[in-house]
Structure to design on (85 residues):
């Protein structure tokens, strides 16, 4: 699970095999959050699993956005604070 969450780091999107590895990482996330799990009777509250179809629909847009914005986000920071600008 930890490796699959590396998709949030900008360096992940700069690798040459990002297209093939992204679907593998997302598959781990879908398996973890989209499948029903057996819980012990001690737990009174469970969460509803995520919809795997929605993740599939959003996958292309997320991948495209991350790949296009990585270089811009990795540039040097501006000297001015955006809150006080």
């Amino acid at each position: 699970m930890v490796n699959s969450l590396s998709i949030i780091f900008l360096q992940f999107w700069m690798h040459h095999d990002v297209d093939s590895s992204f679907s593998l990482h997302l598959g781990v996330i879908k398996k973890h959050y989209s499948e029903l799990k057996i819980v012990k009777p001690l737990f009174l509250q469970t969460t509803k699993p995520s919809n795997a179809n929605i993740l599939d629909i959003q996958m292309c847009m997320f991948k495209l956005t991350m790949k296009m914005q990585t270089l811009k986000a990795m540039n040097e920071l501006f000297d001015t604070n955006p809150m006080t600008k």
About this structure: Residues 4-33+49-72 form one domain.
